[in-house]
Amino acid sequence: MLRSSSRARGPLWRNPAVRALVFQAILLLALVALVAMIVFNTMANLEARGITTGFGFLNERAGFSIPQTLIDYSGNSTYARTFIVGLLNTLLVSVMGIVAATIIGFAVGISRLSTNWLLAKLAAVYVETFRNIPLLVQILFWYFAVLQALPSPRQSLAVFDIFFINVRGLVMPDPQPLPGFEAVLWALLLAVGMVALLVLYARRRQARTGKALPMYWLGAALIIGLPLLVFLATGMPLEWSIPEMAGFNFRGGVTIIPELMALWLALSIYTAAFIAEIVRSGIQSVPHGQVEAARSLSLPGNITLRKVVIPQAMRVIVPQLTSQYLNLIKNSSLATAIGYPDLVAVFAGTALNQTGQAIEIVAMTMAVYLVISLVVSALMNIYNARTLLKER
């Protein structure tokens, strides 16, 4: 019996499962050998040219200035500080772009389905215009054709004599916190926590009684009112640095450089055109019977859109919206075309040219974009899992 069963199975090399394992092992070994060969050849070439490897250069002095910094930075700062400054600038324009593109995209997408003929056509013209012009061209347009055509600082366009727009950017008052301002921040965090607890209570109350609480008004009152009360109670611990003209430039205040404004406008408007089409398709995917049922209950149009249509459309919108967010983050690297000091410009550009550490700098830059994209994707996937239809 043992011989017959052994003869029935046949040799191992005829077993599909065994052959699959052998082929995978061979492929894995070949891949490891290829990577090892590339690494060894690269190290040998670098050593032959006298180029040192490693990340020790991060502690060296950078020796160049950056026009926009969100943290303290000077010419004596290290390359590690340069990396952080570039990373923060990239995150700043990415977050600003995502927020603006989402708001514009939803507004335009809903407008495309409007019964108002003029509004729907204007939204269609917006989409067809901006999504068919290359992003780089739009960045150059906003920077050179619009912002660089503004007047000089002495002929600035003034708004209420505290906001000034000129070729060097937007100059606006700079808030300076005083002792006691920390209490306002703690009040804001407390208000956010209270709103989160109130949302949980409102959901349970509605599930139990069917009555909904006006969460938008209650949340806004808490988030705005509580910090405002603490702000007034602590003697308004905040003063403003008002910009004033001194010589050929403004003194005081804070300046938003034109490179940031041009990049932000281009990224927001370009990405919003794609988001608008995603929103339109998502809304149209909702069965028309849902809208008719809401109308039969005499629900107003805005309530129908907000409570019936949009929640169901989000199941279609969110996966595509994630791709647009990731594209916006990666497209922010086009900032080098106009000199905005993002991660690519100051670290993978100036720092790389000065140090020659191409492998380390490029690897760090790629890793940063990879991590940012994975984090955004993970957050959107969590939200998407909550919006999916739960079937029994």
UniProtKB/TrEMBL annotation:
Record InterPro entries: AA_ABC_transptr_permease_3TM, ArtM/GltK/GlnP/TcyL/YhdX-like, MetI-like, MetI-like_sf
Membrane topology field: Multi-pass membrane protein
A Pfam family reported for this protein in Swiss-Prot or TrEMBL: BPD_transp_1
- Cellular component per GO, a single term: ATP-binding cassette (ABC) transporter complex
| Protein localization | Cell inner membrane; Cell membrane
Query: Member of which family?
Result: Belongs to the binding-protein-dependent transport system permease family. HisMQ subfamily.
Q: What is this protein called?
A: Amino acid ABC transporter membrane protein 1, PAAT family
